[in-house]
Design brief:
12 strands; alpha/beta; single chain; binds pyridoxal-5'-phosphate; 7-stranded mixed beta sheet
């Protein structure tokens, strides 16, 4: 065991940090491991970013991403006061923990005010954010096949905390890909006393979205990102939509210039070319359904997906062996060691050619 450096807080020393998917240095790999979009941003977005790379880089960006918030407000039928933009949606998720959750005190009995709650499996960043903040975690299992428990089932199960300071729901779910009905989410939100974040990182690939809940309930925030559907991971732009009071609280604690200037420009230009992106969503959904059919024929159990990835249970070998065998064939997919998903692989939907290469490799192995 490495000696503890007394300069570092024990909480940080003991922290299990978030593990991002591999960004390989080797060229020529088919990268289906981090849910990036296989299509580049619109030519108009690239042109807008290039046109902004000049002497203006010496200036600070707009501190509140004013223009972008105004555009997003128009898109979502709300006011700019209902929107906060972050350095990726990861940043706004972290702000929510800091703004709504009390760090837990070891000496006192556990208070719901210190509880960060989420389903398992869901986005693996939530427990890390809770740990960084010194909050308590309440990780509640989803139903078999990653379905959302009803409010009655949650009440019956007794583990769910209806008073938790903050509840995260990944919808559609990651890493399973399963979509949830807005009506079911609404029932859950209605019953929940603390803040609820509906993390809609993948919603553009889904049948429905729950944005209206952020405009209806004063304790509900919807998180969105430009990373997945809008091919902008590199620029790090995400946001919350929600009640102006919650947004103002988050705004108080964010860094002054949290969203980089080129990111703001790229996101604004993205909103000018939604037609381009809608065509991409369709292409990705078509490839997803093709890949699901092909892998099913090859003996994989493929869970229904409303995202740009599929969760699959492979035949013949354990999932980590598949991970390795596919890597040897230059195809990267993702495997999570968490027990509820360790029998599965998560495969990002790439281009039709990438999906065909995966199917070819699987045929050789199966
Ligand atoms: C469910 C979910 N939410 C949020 C994010 C973060 O996205 P970003 O910080 O790129 O906006 C991810 C990224 O993998 C995700 O899977």
């Amino acid at each position: 065991m490495a000696k503890k450096n007394p300069l570092i807080r024990p909480l940080v020393h003991n922290l299990h940090a978030y593990v991002p998917g591999e960004q390989p240095k080797i060229k020529g790999l088919i990268k289906l491991n981090t849910n990036e979009n296989p299509y580049p941003p619109s030519p108009k977005v690239l042109a807008a970013v290039k046109a902004a790379v000049d002497g203006r880089l010496r200036l600070y960006p707009h501190p509140t991403a004013e223009k972008l918030r105004a555009r997003l407000a128009k898109l979502h039928g709300c006011k700019p006061e209902n929107i906060i933009v972050g350095n990726g949606s990861d940043e706004v998720l972290a702000l929510a923990v800091r703004a709504f959750v009390e760090p837990s005190s070891k000496s006192k009995a556990q208070s719901p005010k210190s509880v960060v709650q989420y389903f398992t499996p869901s986005y693996s960043l939530y427990p890390v954010l809770a740990d960084i903040h010194g909050a308590a975690k309440n990780a509640v299992p989803l139903k078999p096949d990653f379905r959302l428990p009803s409010v009655a089932e949650l009440k019956h199960g007794k583990q769910w905390n209806f008073n938790a300071a903050l509840t995260f729901v990944t919808t559609p779910n990651a890493p399973s890909g399963r979509g949830y009905e807005t009506a079911a989410l609404e029932k859950l939100c209605r019953t929940q006393k603390g803040a609820v974040v509906l993390d809609e990182a993948y919603v553009d690939f889904a049948n429905e979205n729950a944005l209206k809940l952020a405009l209806k309930f004063s304790h509900v925030l919807v998180a969105r990102t430009f990373s997945k559907a809008y091919s902008l991971c590199f620029q790090r732009v995400g946001y919350f939509v929600g009640h102006a009071e919650l947004i103002a609280a988050l705004d108080k604690i964010r860094d002054s210039y949290n969203v980089n200037g080129l990111g703001q420009i790229a996101a604004e230009a993205t909103l000018d070319d939604m037609k381009f992106y809608r065509a991409n969503f369709k292409k990705i959904i078509t490839t997803r359904e093709w890949l699901a059919r092909e892998l099913t024929k090859l003996g994989f159990r493929v869970l229904p997906s409303q995202t740009n990835f599929i969760l699959v249970k492979p035949p013949l070998f354990p999932a980590p062996a598949w991970l390795q065998k596919l890597r040897e064939r230059k195809i990267l997919v993702r495997w999570f060691s968490a027990p509820e998903v360790s029998d599965y692989l998560r495969i990002t939907i790439g281009t039709p050619a990438e999906a065909a290469a995966l199917v070819k490799a699987v045929r050789q192995l199966a």
